[in-house]
Amino acid sequence: MVVLVLASHIFPSKNNFIKALMKKHPEITTIVMNVNSKKTSMVLGEREQVLYGKGFIEDTLCGKVFRISPKSFYQINAVQTEVLYGKAIELADLKGKETIIDAYCGIGTIGIIASSHVNKVIGVELNRDAVKDAITNAKRNKVNNIYFYNQDAGEFMNQMAAKKQSVDVVFLDPPRSGSTEEFMNSMILLNPKKVVYISCNPATLERDLAYLVKRGYEVKKAIPVDMFPGTEHVEVITLLQKA
């Protein structure tokens, strides 16, 4: 999939460009034009136009097929992603009766992969396009015990806690900036027995773990996974339990 980000919807010689690109790279299956006229740190804008193909690609991960759209997050190292998610589920030590939350769930990868190990999965994601893909992915993989919500995960957990609802495990895989105190306070209010925190930034992971430890959780185990060999970047899976 190729995503072209332009400042304007005007694209002279668009068809000639597509033909030349496809001739040089016949492995491309879809081309999408994204329009972003704003001068901000955000790469992608709201408007999209499919120039070639279906507008999405698919990949197989841990035996499940996932649809990936231009605005959806997906780990780029599929081989190590299987290790990452496999270890995360292993750390949770699921028995089959749990209700879990997949916070920052994206296109539903962790929740869908974990669905066969639990009773119920709740996926929460703020990105509307990612949630659409997540619902499609659950149907594609015939997963019937997962429910997706297009909402801020912290607000969602606050609402659950207000209704006296509970979950057994929370999986969270936040961006490099880490989680927020608001999110973690909501999670603490929901009182899960276990938290599986997947982090791509050791500095924000250390900060967030310290916050959770001060509020009744205990770090049980941490496993690094090398997602980008030859670089200094590493993902870390951490299991926390109620002290």
Features of the shown structure:
243 residues, alpha/beta, Rossmann fold, 2 domains, 3-stranded mixed sheet, 7 helices, 12 strands, 32% helix, 28% strand, SAM-dependent_MTases_sf, EC 2.1.1.189
Give structural notes:
It is a single chain. The chain folds into two domains: 54 residues, no CATH class; 170 residues, Vaccinia Virus protein VP39 (Rossmann fold, 3-Layer(aba) Sandwich), CATH 3.40.50. With 243 residues, the protein is of the alpha/beta class. Helix 5 runs parallel beside helix 6. A seven-stranded mixed β-sheet has the order 8-7-6-9-10-12-11, sandwiched between helices. The protein has a three-stranded mixed β-sheet with strand order 1-2-3, with no helix packed on it. A two-stranded antiparallel ribbon has the order 4-5. The protein is elongated, with a radius of gyration of 19 Å. Strand 9, helix 6 and strand 10 form a beta-alpha-beta unit. This is 23S rRNA (Uracil-C(5))-methyltransferase RlmCD. It is an enzyme of class 2 (transferase).
Give the SSE order as H and E letters: EHEEEEHEHEHEHEHEHEE
CATH topology of the largest domain: Rossmann fold
| Distinct helical segment count | 7
- Strand segment count: 12
How confident is the prediction overall: mean pLDDT?
Answer: 93
- What share of residues is helical? 25-40%
- What form results from the Cα inertia axes? elongated
Largest sheet: 7 strands, mixed
Strand order of the largest sheet: 8-7-6-9-10-12-11
- Low-confidence spans: none
Structural class: alpha/beta
Strand content: 25-35%
By CATH reckoning, the class of the largest domain would read: Alpha Beta
- How many structural domains can be distinguished in the coordinates? 2
Task: Name the CATH superfamily classification of the largest domain.
Answer: Vaccinia Virus protein VP39
Second rung of CATH, namely the architecture of the largest domain: 3-Layer(aba) Sandwich
Distance between the termini: 46 Å
What would you report as the Rg, rounded to the nearest angstrom? 19 Å
